[in-house]
User: What shape does this take?
Amino acid sequence: MPELRMREALREALREEMLRDDRVFLMGEDIGAYGGSYTVTRGLLDEFGPERVIDTPIAESGVVGAGIGAAINGLRPMVEIMTINFSFVAFDQIINNASKFLYMSGGQFNVPLVLRMAAGGGSQLGATHSHSLEGLYAHFPGLKVVCPSNPADAKGLLKRAFRDENPVIFIEHSALYSLKGEVPDDADYVLEFGKARVLREGTDVTIVGYGGSVHQALRSAAMLEDQEQLSAEVIDLRTLRPLDIDTVIQSVKKTNRCVVVEDDWQFGGFAGEISAQVMERAFDWLDAPVARVSGKDVPMPYNRNLEFAALPSEEDVVEAVLAML
Amino acid sequence: MAAVRTRRDRSQTRIDDYLLSEAQLEEMYYHMLLARRLNERMLALNRQGRAPFVIAGAGQEAAQVGAAMALKKGIDYVAPYYRDLGVNLVFGMDAREAMLNLLAKRDDPNAFGRQMPSHWGNRERHVVTQSSVVATQLLHAVGIALAAKMRNDPIVVLASCGEGSTSRGDFHEALNFAGIHKLPVIFYIENNGYAITERTDKEMAIEHVADRARAYGIHGAVVDGMDAIRVYQTVAPAVAETRGGGGPYLIEAKCYRLWAHSSDDDDSRYRTKQELEEWARKDPIKLFRERVESDRIFPPEDLDEIEQRVDDEVKEAAQWAASQPDPAPEDALGFVYKEL
Assistant: This one.
């Protein structure tokens, strides 16, 4: 299997889907000649031409709205929003239109639209460039929310997104674009939505993550083993909607402890959702309350020291696990 | 009920002054009148406590019917707004369906009881569903037109809204995008003088919305929206031009909202009786009848007969719709995701 960076794996998925289905086309700011802010679409304009790789005005609501219209009229658009932070400007189109059209029209108008966005902090981009909104988007019925943690998943899940009949919010953690990994080059390599993956088996605690936080979970599991001789099981949710809670429950019934790690703010966040579902379905198996390790309750600061302080770390996860014992 | 029943076979030959045939003029009158009478019955039902909410297009029938008749039914797309009952009637909705929609009945083909009234949508008829946030549908029209252009499908999309909606960013983003790609969209502004309670001078510093066309490199036109024939004569050539690749149009139909914003609004708090009376004299349905009568297109008894037919249809539709089933509680679920 070839080894690719995540941005290359995403590009391969786009390219393969455009070759497979001539209804697929791409729109976004800087995605054509420039190849995208994170260079995911580099080369696609040359290969597919300006009709299928469209550089758009900086107008997120406009591009998403146009994507909705194109989807209604039979195409399979992918809209790249440079970062998830700018999706606030398109929020009404995403929530009031894309997520609700099928329901509000009594099943007549589905919106097969793929919205790709970079997310997450850790790159010194400040308070309005560093959001983690996976949980926010997962709140809305009608949307599917995907957050890959590695190149192979990125490819397989993005290919799957184009085969969906519904709007898919595809969230890429900006710190992972250069992450390398083995990626199947089979054009039929497509992953299912709603299938979490156990990345590391363990017996003492279940650590749940998604997107970027999967890597904190893995590093903390290694630390727990080396420093504390504890065996942690690590679960990558991969998609928040649909959510594979069964895999988490199964694991918790084995380990009797659960920590959820996310970059997002804790208050009202997705870790709370996981925690509630674990409590509802595995209360009697828990030896300690479910712990949440999250970002600090502040807008993301810019200075490197401050930013590190605001983000959850693997040490925070280790601490949370030790507090449960 | 979609086809208009004519008293006699009207001539299909175009009348020079009108650019419309007798048959089309009859259809025009029928649809304008049907829109008005339906709205009147809806408001009556609301006042009787039988319909929770009414939002109507009284005063805008000429603007709506004249424009919609310039399109190809079921081939072209419309992305209407909540006052566009007239547009929907031209595109195939009948009186019964309009009443099912008002009462949010199970079999309302627009939304099956899931949407507020007047949020129309019909995939088969190419009427795009909509949210209540104004001007958002202009962008959907842009996307529909973009997809059509990519497939070399020679359709036109008519996206309509009130002049108040043109204050929103989505209006700007839609016209900008359509201008860049020369898309086959008619942005159709029904300038009815009021954005809910605010007069246009609180919404914009210019007199004509259509003046903004130049800023987007697209065509602009202003038309008397109280005159259905003039509306048709303005929109039809624009449709032909944009269908042929001539790029988008911004057409502003000057009309007047004869009623309050909705059944929940008291318009006596922000406009005078004199103003209303003045505009009532320019009622588009009355003007139409006067013109075709004075030009002797139809004998008065033919027009009376159309009025009678409309009254009968509206009455029957209201009674019939009231007896139709509501959705069952379990119908609240479903249609959140489309299965593969």
